[in-house]
Design brief:
It is built from no helices and 4 strands. Strand 2 and strand 3 form a beta hairpin. The protein has one domain. It is mainly β.
Amino acid sequence: MPDNPSPRPKKVTYSFRKASDYRIYPATGAWGGPTIDQRHILMNLSIDHGTLPSYTTHSVELVNG
């Protein structure tokens, strides 16, 4: 173990970055039915999810064990 260890951080920040071509393709819901002329089906897809934060900060606690 080093004689002079570096101080431990009290907080850690996680940064969430998306690529410029980031897209969401999965669907968790669908709503639709036959069109008026009964020859086609109209369907709308949706996804239920929260927006990702830009960053989060968490406290760090030292645990002796």
